[in-house]
Amino acid sequence: MLGADQLRLIQPNLQSERVFRLLANSLRDYSLFLLTPEGIIASWNPGAERLKQYKADEIIGKHFSIFYTPKDLHIQKPKNELEVAAATGRYEEEGWRVRKDGTRFWASVVITAIRDDDGTLLGFGKITRDLSERREAEARYRLLIEGVSDYAIFSLDSKGVVTSWNIGAQRIKGYAADEIVGRHFSTFYTPEDRAGGLPEKVLKTAEETGHFQGEGWRVRKDGTRFWSSVVVTALRNEEDELIGFSKITRDVTERKHLLDAVQRHADELELRIAEREQTNAELEAFSYSVSHDLRSPLRAIEGFTDIINTDFGDQLPEQVNQYLGQISQASKRMNRLVEDLLDYSRLTRASMAPEKVNVAKALEDARQQTEEKLRDHVKVSVPANLVAYVHGSTFTQALYNLMSNGLKFHAPGKEPHVEVTATAKGNKVKIVVRDEGIGIPKEHHERIFQVFERLHSATKYPGTGIGLAIVKRALVRMGGTISLQSEPGQGSTFTIEVPGI
Amino acid sequence: MRTEKPTVLLVEDNDDDYQLMQVAFQRTPGSLELLRAEDGDVALDYLAGKDEYSDRDRYPFPHLVLLDIKLPRRSGFEVLDWIRKNSPLRRLPVVMFTSSRHTVDVNKAYELGASGYFGKPESMKELAILLGELKNVWGRLEFPTEADPIAKTQIRQ
Fold first, then answer.
1. Given 3.10.580.10, 3.40.50.2300, 3.30.200.20, 2.120.10.80, which CATH number is that of B7-141?
2. pTM recorded for the entire structure
């Protein structure tokens, strides 16, 4: 029990005693009380009562060692704490303390020595806080981290030495905690990366920017490598001093393999595209030289035939003039053939960006290209505002080919007649080109769309045999279709559909 | 052989085409003189008046160049580029005369400074029409000639 003299000795010497008491009484979350130099409890506040369950009158005058566990008492902890506080002015710790009912709580304790102006020790102030909840949360957190097996979660000190290790780290890297704690984390890097100074760079980046994030090869205990995704975070204390790093590593080797496979496919694809571009360039060069070199001899044939005709025609037998006419016709045909082939090959390669095309205008353009004397035999019926979404010149060329096809194959002794109607059909445009010509037997309906396929001799129906192939190819390239209805003697009806808007 | 007629230098490697052009020139009522360079290198020598081409009586400086694109060794484009970068020749009218109808070629020709672009016609009739046009458009212009002393020295360099 504390003697009345001793209490008197302390209390008058405390400055602003009343203020202190008011403050202490208002603190409910902190236990705040005074001790004599010997450790006898000299005051008590509501916080202390709440925390330790003693009422003021049952605790004042008792020695403060009553709050300690038997184990701490055994090592004379209370006495030591007061000695430290007396010597250094302050003692601070976290540890187990005991309530009145014998239960324990995790306490944050600060003991401060109180001295008068002469330096004489008057006693101690003691502040205690219950950290049980925080401690439990920390324990739960630690258990959580230790139990995470998909991620290697561990901590490093500020130099990069491993200070903690979880089960995930063990699983991914192969080390048990006691094998690796205390070793430098550069152990996980490949010799190349170590030589390149990567571990240092990682820590430096984390230290300077707060964290480091990256992927790379790491080495397991058994020497095998895995592709890791890493986040390193710098840990700082309240004074902003670097105290270490946390490191979270994930084994993403599988994902890496997948991505690599995807990349390989992409590379292959790119290579193929490059090859195709190469082929296209070669085709382009080929068609260039075809148009240049193949036509040049034809020009000579045509030119010299013309010169002979003009300058010497009247000196030549009629038979020769007739042959010359045939030579000239043949060279013209050859010329058309080359042109058509070029058109056809262009349809295969050229890009065909679609645009809005007025169908009535395209049909009229096509009609204007037909032979002048036959032009009026083409009847067109189309709504003025009908719009197709096609490649303009290709569309017109296809329409022209169909019209001239219809004009060409008219029945002997009968005037050619071609009827074209265009209508909107849903979001498509449907164009029907109907002639009253000789018609096409069913078994040939497929063949006529192929290059160089013709059903008649060139003498009877002149042409290159490419026209309908061009139409078909053009429509396919523009996302359209073509179909044919025809019987011999009944005329032919070509129906095409192209994208509208 | 100094001639008073406007002269046209045809740069053409194909003998047939040259001969046809000759006939076409003969048929065009007496107004144009046809000269020939067989390829791009010859064209450069001709225009620069190098070696035998320094004889301008025999090889007069042309009023107009008709230039094929596809030529052995040095292409028509290279010849055109050379002409346009050679200051005394810069204003010499150069008309491309080629069987290529490729848009790429047409664009390139005009980018390099061609004065015109003609596809080689398929018939003598069309060729005659073309010559008539050439004469109308370029035959009446006043051309820079090598007689200009500044031009002469610069070309020689």
1. 3.40.50.2300
2. 0.47
